[in-house]
Amino acid sequence: MAHDVKSRLTALLQQALDSVAPSATDTPIQLERPRDPTHGDFATNLAMQLAKALKKNPREIAQQLVNELPVSALVTKAEVAGAGFINFTLDAGAKTSAVRQVLIEGENYGRSTQGGWQKVQVEFVSANPTGPLHVGHGRGAAYGASLSSLLTFAGWDVTREYYVNDAGRQMDILGLSTWLRYLEQHGVSVQFPPNGYQGDYVRGMAEQLTHAHGDKFVRSAEAVVAGTPGQPEAGRADDEAKKQRETQLDALIANAKELLGPDWDYVHQHALNEQLAGCRDDLKEFGVEFEVWYSEKALYDTGLVARCVDLLEQKGHLYVQNGARWFRSTTFGDEKDRVVQRENGLYTYFASDIAYHLNKFERGFDKVINIWGADHHGYIPRVTGAIKALDLDPDKLQVALVQFAVLYRNGQKASMSTRSGEFVTLRELRNEVGNDACRFFYALRKSDQHLDFDLDLAKSQTNENPVYYIQYAHARVCSVINQWLDSHAGDPATLAEANLALLVNPRELAIANKLVEFKDVIANAARDLAPHLIAFYLKDLAGEFHGWYNAERMLVDDAALRDARVALATAVRQVIRNGLAILGVSCPESM
Length: 591
Hints:
The chain is an alpha/beta fold. It has 21 helices and 15 strands. The strands form four sheets. A five-stranded parallel beta sheet has the order 7-6-5-11-12. A four-stranded antiparallel beta sheet has the order 1-2-4-3. Strand 3 and strand 4 (85-90) form a beta hairpin. The mean pLDDT is 94.
């Protein structure tokens, strides 16, 4: 309906434009919702766009356009406002007809073919499987899941993907950390590296190894530390000390691999499997699932990393310096060139990342959306540069950044970490405020804006809590419908045939007009990768409904008016359901 109204208004304006400015008929016609509802239902700045070409005052042009508008039952009023805007007020029937459309289309109301069923990959979360997901990962998960549902709703063919960083040094550090805790449980005392993984979950994985294999992986402390440089003094924070700690860690990893032999792969894989399983469970309980879990290790096993680096070499984008191979990323706008293969022959993380993006393009996606933490902003130019260097289309890649969420309790910043220095986990947050509050509050701001997450507000059952406010509107409608069914023998199948012309109350027309707007909200949110627009919309719709509910009696004696009002309330319920489904939030029928 929203698109129908806009297309019909656009057609009317186009006819007026053809008459007023025959030489500028290709001027794009833009229609927007005025922020102030007293300014009408739609507004256009077309006259202001024409002012320069026609060398006339915009208000004069606007009045000419209004005068040339064909007569239409769609519009009850068109008037010039401000510097040259034209405001349109729609006929009441154009608004209330949306109610019937909602009731007929149901869960499909708002769906579109905007995306043309183009294949789009949304890669999100992709946290290193080295520990539990924390509240920062939670925001990326909520945003990625909501965006994927939104794009699907708007007509894209979406693949949700998690990139598993199961190769490289961080996984080796997790494997080492697990093994050292295992040795500790068997009385083998080795100083635990401060740059290892410290969490209790590591001890838990070590206990699993002991339970399953006893002392099979025990080696002597002397053998574990043999040939290592040792740790610097605990209090030192200078560069030399930092370097020594990293060298010590690498030496311990090398010793672990040699001492355990083939069993190292088992310990390493055990740590990976446990963390991935925990990650999958956390995300599934959070309502976030993926079609693809793509392994970084697979990029090496299939030879794609080597092939990708060789391709860059063949295209003349690499050079050798001090034994390492460097990518000329400054040629493509990066601040400095980047190493893709170290002097020891090992490929860098950047090399595997280039290969992963090559793989994405080779899989035939029309668009690739990466959802990264805001701290990865500087990574965008080098990845985009590598895509250009491989003669791929950089316009197919879009990166959405997600800022960290800050927790607040009692008006004060809450601690983001536990005593052991770990971040508060997503599971702890969900257990405190619930999934619905988590998903909705994460969606309350544009993803690249800082988010203050008020824990007290998220748990409150008040109108100030937006998710409660919206869900309560849904529950209220359910209560009205149940009363209508029980006391008035209502038949839901007949609601689409209700006499909607009886909805003349300004509050009712405002709600109907809000329902018209839902399709535009979906289109704009999908275009801008902005699911937060749906959260804003639902809050406004709930406000309109609560105001009407508190001011008017729904189940009046007049049967025709009663059915019309129930039809409107039912349409509100359906749109709330459609919007909350995109955001991953439930719709309780009673509260």
